[in-house]
Amino acid sequence: MIDFVQNTIDGVMTGSSYALLALGFTMILGVMRRLNLSYGPSIMIGAYLGTLVYLQLSASPIVVVAVTVAGAVLAGIYVERLCFAPMAAGAGIASMVSSFAIWMQLEQAAVLVLPRHTYPFPPLATGAPLTFGPFLLRTDHLIMLTCALAVSTGVQLLLYRSRFGLALRAIINNPVAAHLVGINVRTAIVWAFVLASVVGGIAGYLVLATDQQITPMFGMWATFKGLIAMMIGGLGSIPGAIVGGLVLGVVEAHSQWYFGPQVRDLVAYGLLFACLVLRPGGLLGGPPVREPFPWRRGT
Amino acid sequence: MLEISDLVTAYGKIEALKGVTLHAEAGRITCLLGPNGAGKTTLMMSIAGILQPLRGSVRLAGTELRGLPPARIVAQGVALVPENRLVFPQMSVRENLLAGAYQRNDKAGVSADVERMYERFPRLRERREQLAGTLSGGEQQMLAVARALMSRPRVLLMDEPSLGLAPLVVAEIFRIVAELHRDGTTIFLVEQNAHMALQVAHHFYLMEQGRVTFSGAPGQLAEDEVIQRAYLGAREAG
Questions:
Q1: What's the gap in Å between the CA of A152 and the closest CA on chain B?
Q2: Cα A58 to Cα A210: distance, rounded to the nearest angstrom
Q3: pTM, full prediction
């Protein structure tokens, strides 16, 4: 019983970082109806820049966060300009395939340019874990959970309380109607990419600071975790992204404890498979992705 | 007010508009009738900047609109109530209205206009916190009209506002059109419902296969013939 509770606590902690990755994915998918497979690798680029300023200038954690986020945003804009902006409406597959190509490009760049495979990443907190009765709480996990809560609340407020949020939700609801009410859709999409990259950069920093190391495979890892969490929670749904991330984290923690690390990923994919079969829309089944140009069918 | 001349819009190699010229006069209701596939919605989407015309011009009080992005066209004073309404289904009625005023910066004026819309459409006030997707077809149409009016347009374009609505609701929509006209709104209306449209229009055009084939006042053409041509397109039949 104690193990079960402890595993659940650990799962929620790591799950909160999956939730942030899923949140970034879902924002881009919701606004553009296109999948950005390069999301993880662009975070990886930002994180390498973060670890660079740490190793070269022994920068403080605040600076490392700032550089990681800024790098992720720049890489995100690079992906948007290359894979999303030039593609015509309705060419979603072209964007997805080209974002896969940029994924490989970024990953190979990291593999070829860097002299070493693994680099240290500055830890968040190194103190002894807090104890509550029989339970242990790692301080860096606590910071991760707090940041994840703060970021997702911030995103929620931005979406539901601001003019920019109104525009983004209008685009998610119906891009043609968003044009018709005078929203500058192209500009809003670029800002949505920036926002998703900021969220992803923070998530990447939190994960790497707990792992205390970074490899070029981090991009793939982030894309997979974000994608799986988003699909479990429900495409395009913000609460779904949070729930999907937490569920994935908890299930992984339990399967790692009971069956070992090799089985953990197997269980994660099994969970995704079960979700897709039983609830194809995800746990919180977001709005179905509608035909973006319904009037094209008519005159 | 709104002058369209020799407008050509194509989907790939197929020209949907083959040089359309028409004129919507200030303060009046101008109506465009025609069968399915004549290019009516293409024309509306071309005026609003969603589709890019190849040639021709769209002028609002002398200002060229062709080539401007949709947001700039709204800023110039053109608002479109699109075919199938296209409300934001996952947003509340009130948020839909606020989105309609997206370009405006006068907060007080916007809230006053939201209030004005609730007065004109009491059903929208009753349902103001409800998600727009849960409204009935007629209510969604009213919301689409109110949303377009929130930008304080100089010309209101309406694309088949009666589509898919019950006869009573259609009558209500046309009562609203007449009311908007009385308040001085310039209206350019695309319709399939020729009977209702001819009752409110001051001037009407017939469009068949991407071309304007008739222009005149209601009464200049027998209603039977208008209906025949508006529904079936009489050019090849004759």
A1: 20
A2: 18
A3: 0.87
